[in-house]
Amino acid sequence: MLEREELFARQVGEDTDIVAKELYRFADRDGTQLCLRPEATVPTLRARAAAGNLGAGTVRVWYFGAMFRRERPQRGRYRQFHQFGAEAVGSLSPLLDAEIIMLCARIWRELGVADKLELQVNNLGSADERAAYRKLLQQHLRTRTDDLDEAARARLETNPLRILDSKDEDTLAALADAPEMAEVLGPASRKHVDDVVAMIEDCGVKAIWNPRLVRGLDYYGLTVFEWALPGDERRQSAVAGGGRYDSLAAQIGAADAPGVGFAAGVERLLELADLAVEEQADAYLAVADGAIEPADALRLCESLRNAGLSVIEDLKGGKMKALFRRADQSKASLAVVIGTREAAAKAATIKHLRCSLDQREVGQGDLPAAVKEMLSSGAAATNR
Ligand code: AMP
Questions:
Q1: Which pLDDT score is estimated for 95?
Q2: 241 CB less than 6 Å from ligand 1?
Q3: What DSSP string describes 165-197?
């Protein structure tokens, strides 16, 4: 999570929002400038390079972890959030770009969100082509500076490509008749991204060309892509993005290892997929006032936990009715209740809370086996 600041300043780009505005940076005790990682592609390559396994063959790796950006917090935009992603390094083949995009599509299907998302693609060409386009775009926008908002004007000389990303209406109007990247692309660059798109479409994933898609990180070339909800609110709705970065490894001092990858935002995916998992214990164990000692109740809970079951232990006691009510509120599958009658018989009553199957009374020593049996009969009954 902690990296040297210079790693990002150089590779992500001094003039990108992520570095210029959003990087959490501070000095270590010895004066070394550190930062909290805002993304994980650069750290992944740094770590692989440090371990000496970049450059020999193709490396395919994935990550999941916390990222930090000092943004204005709002829904879907947090200062600490989580990303998972994959990087495939060591080949110029468009097959690798297609593989990464298909991996995303597979994950969206598994999460049940594939139908909600749309894939946008752009071709950012080679470094030379980007430099040529940068000039063309600057020339055009210098004739329209009155229409540019403050952010765009600041970027005109430092990072004009990022202006394409603007949401400001006047700036967008100034861009309407701007030259497009496609005008400067040579045949090799064109073929690369066209091949990627042809391959993924052949596998049933539709790509929408977006000539204004530039991404917030400077290391991308050729293929760039984003997955987002269709419609206007794309920037807040993007759940994942990525692209090809052919000179990044060389720039961080590793072997010349071209690669491609993606990063997905976990919080946004959770919201989209409605994956909020309701924590549900297997059993809620409750003891009526004075029936058995707390230590004995704990020992019973532990015997269930030792059998791999999840158990919530009631802390309040009271009469049987109150015990069953709290058990039900806990959302557990079963109530395991010990009243004075059960205590005298060294037994417990197990009741289904999620279906109407009969309750059972079992000896306390038989609790783990009985709870397991009733869990599976309960599951079968509710699936029917
Ligand atoms: P990026 O590489 O900046 O496009 O980030 C990739 C994905 O991470 C985005 O599509 C979002 O889903 C997610 N993400 C980026 N920044 C944030 C943030 N501040 N809070 C929550 N999710 C974020």
A1: 98
A2: yes
A3: G---HHHHHHHHTS--GGGG--HHHHHHHHHHH
What average pLDDT is seen over the chain?
92
Q: Are 5 and 36 in contact (CB under 8 A)?
A: no
Check pLDDT > 80 for residue 81: yes
Residue 275 banded pLDDT, cuts 50, 70, 90: low
Ligand 1 contacts CB of residue 296 (under 6 A)? no
Residue 118 token pair: 């749309």
DSSP β-bridge partners for residue 242: 225, 262
Report which of 245, 314, 235 is spatially closest to residue 281, judged by C-alpha positions. 314
CA 337–ligand 1 middle distance (angstroms): 47
Tell me if 165 CB under 6 Å of ligand 1: no
Determine which of 82-96, 233-247, 298-312, 339-353 has the lowest per-residue pLDDT on average. Answer: 233-247
In angstroms and rounded to an integer, the radius of gyration of the C-alpha atoms of the chain is: 29
Inter-residue contact 240 to 227 (CB < 8 Å): yes
State the distance from the centre of ligand 1 to the C-alpha of 67, rounded, in angstroms.
9
Distance between CA atoms of 16 and 143, rounded to whole angstroms?
Answer: 24
**From atom 3 of ligand 1, which residue's Cα is the shortest distance away?**
216
216 close to ligand 1 (CB < 6 Angstrom) = yes
The number of the ligand 1 atom at minimal distance from the alpha carbon of 73 is 19
pLDDT of the residue at 235: 56
Q: So what's the pLDDT on residue 138?
A: 94
The answer to whether 45 and 254 have CB atoms below 8 angstroms apart is: yes
Q: What is the mean pLDDT of residues 5-33?
A: 87
Residue with tokens 């209740």: 337
Q: Is residue 77 within 6 Å of ligand 1 at its C-beta?
A: yes
Distance in Å, CA 65 to ligand 1 centroid: 12
Residue type present at position 183: E
